[in-house]
Design brief:
Elements (H helix, E strand, L loop, with lengths): L27 H4 L16 E10 L12 E12 L3 E12 L5 E12 L25 E6 L4 H5 L12 H6 L9 H16 L7 E8 L8 E12 L5 E9 L4 E10 L9
Antiparallel strand pairs: 1-4, 1-6, 2-3, 3-4, 5-7, 6-9, 7-8, 8-9
Length: about 270
């Protein structure tokens, strides 16, 4: 922490809404109880999984909040009836109250399993971000999980019992506890920065992925990363990636990032 280049990992703000300002271990189901949405049936937070997440990094996160006040400004963007479940799309802005500056903009969707069929709109189709055809990955990042991975990750504040005890996962058809989708999502972002960005938070502008299948404790994650060569006017390059369980299914699809690729590979 005393290194002059010590930085907050850029996706850190994605976890802040899970615990707010509390320093305590929270009852996940009580804390995340859905605020009623007019015209929408009650949705049970005991049967919800992540659908898709995107984050835009607008300003570097400070390593301390001393002398500042931050708040999360949240709103619902849409609610869609998918038949087998309901999708709720939300937006969370991390804002410094004193200046009104927005540090990150996170959008995402939660899929409420088995809670569809109420006659609501189906919602728009989402864009696809596929890897380049007939091109080998420019980089591959691997991460071995273990039985403690989810238990350690939950200390960030995501205390969903689905990732700690077998009963919720058994009721939802997963066969037992699964690792947080955001564990795979965040560690994949770490992998992209390590392989292409020199582990410098300044080298990533956007990051997003769709949650495709669950990850079990002990699974090995393999992320294939492709450069597209497509750049915007500020020289941010479009990156594509797919994260899979080794020998198994894709767990993060539709992977996309905007990065500035550096030549030297990080040693971290």
């Amino acid at each position: 922490e005393l290194h002059p280049d010590f930085s907050v990992f850029p996706t850190y703000s994605i976890i802040l809404p899970f615990r707010g300002t509390s320093q305590e271990v929270l009852d996940f189901y009580t804390y995340s109880r859905q605020t009623p949405i007019p015209g929408i049936p009650h949705l049970d937070s005991k049967r919800v999984v992540d659908g898709e997440r995107k984050i835009e990094f607008l300003k570097s996160l400070p390593v301390t909040s001393e002398g500042r006040q931050f708040e999360i400004r949240a709103k619902v963007l849409g609610v869609y009836d998918k038949g087998k479940g309901t999708v709720v799309e939300t937006e969370n802005l991390l804002v410094e109250k004193g200046t009104g500056e927005v540090y990150t903009r996170a959008t995402g969707s939660g899929f409420f399993v088995g809670q569809g069929g109420w006659g609501g709109p189906k919602g728009p189709s989402t864009p696809s971000f596929l890897p380049p055809k007939d091109k080998k990955p420019d980089a591959v990042y691997t991460l071995q999980t273990n039985n403690e991975s989810a238990l350690l990750y939950r200390l960030n504040g995501d205390y969903n019992p689905l990732h700690a005890t077998p009963e919720p996962g058994q009721k939802m058809g997963f066969g037992g506890a699964i690792i947080h989708g955001l564990f795979s999502w965040n560690t994949t972002c770490h992998g992209l920065l390590k392989e292409l960005g020199g582990s410098d938070p300044a080298n990533i502008k956007e990051f997003q992925a769709r949650f495709a299948s669950p990850v079990k404790p002990g699974d090995k994650l393999v992320t294939q990363i492709w450069r597209t060569g497509e750049r915007d006017s500020q020289d941010w390059e479009e990156i594509r990636f797919v994260t899979s369980v080794e020998g198994g299914k894709v767990c993060l699809s539709n992977g996309r990032a905007k990065m500035k690729v550096v030549a030297a590979k990080s040693k971290l």
